[in-house]
């Protein structure tokens, strides 16, 4: 799902006359068939040159156009795997009641199974850091924005980094990196970004529902009894962390 975040970042932060905007818009609008298009067809559809498309591909972090197309194919394939909360053969009321029961079971299990020592260590690192650098892709990116608003209110320095960690950031000695990856896809599909972050030699944390994912930093595993509700589970745990930070400031 990384490609869609890269495209959205450009679309949301560029002028419509910017060639990067035009290429991003064309690819996003045609992402279902992009694998069958040539670089010339993308250039013509975006009203730019082939050389501009090649430059754009490199700027996104891909070695060549074929690699970008592969990333698009992975995103398209993931669309059919998105979790759905409701059953198609149940009505609105029944689905809503069932969801409440499932959420209660999920969060009750999390409260009893999560490692509170790890949570407290993360809270302490955030409380004492010079700046918290936050990374989240896909569904976790919106969660990062919410966390930023809450920590701003607590006057805790925080920056939500760009999806490829390409910008130049002033990273102090006591900075902390926090990666939020609901199912671990960020680590599986964005090795370059994770490698860049780990090379910073700062404390780095990961919050995920994927127990099996390998990570060189510190990891908070969020246990889940219902993988379709992992996004809700991660949101719950981040709310617990924020509540703990608020408690510590009172």
Report on the architecture of this protein:
- By secondary structure, this protein is α/β, with parallel strands linked by helices.
- It is 55% helix and 9% strand.
- The longest helix is centred in the middle third of the chain and has 22 residues, at 92-113.
What's the pLDDT, averaged over the residues?
90
- CATH hierarchy class name of the largest domain: Alpha Beta
Number of helices: 11
**Largest sheet, order of strands side by side?**
2-1-3-4-5
Global geometry: globular
For the secondary structure, the number of strands is 5
Helix and strand sequence: HHHHHHHEHEEHHEEH
Into how many domains do the coordinates divide?
Answer: 2
Low-pLDDT residue spans: none
Summarize the structure.
By secondary structure, the protein is an alpha/beta fold. It has helices spanning 2-12, 19-29, 39-46, 50-59, 65-79, 92-113, 116-128, 139-153, 185-189, 191-198, 230-249, and strands at 132-136, 158-160, 176-180, 203-208, 218-221.
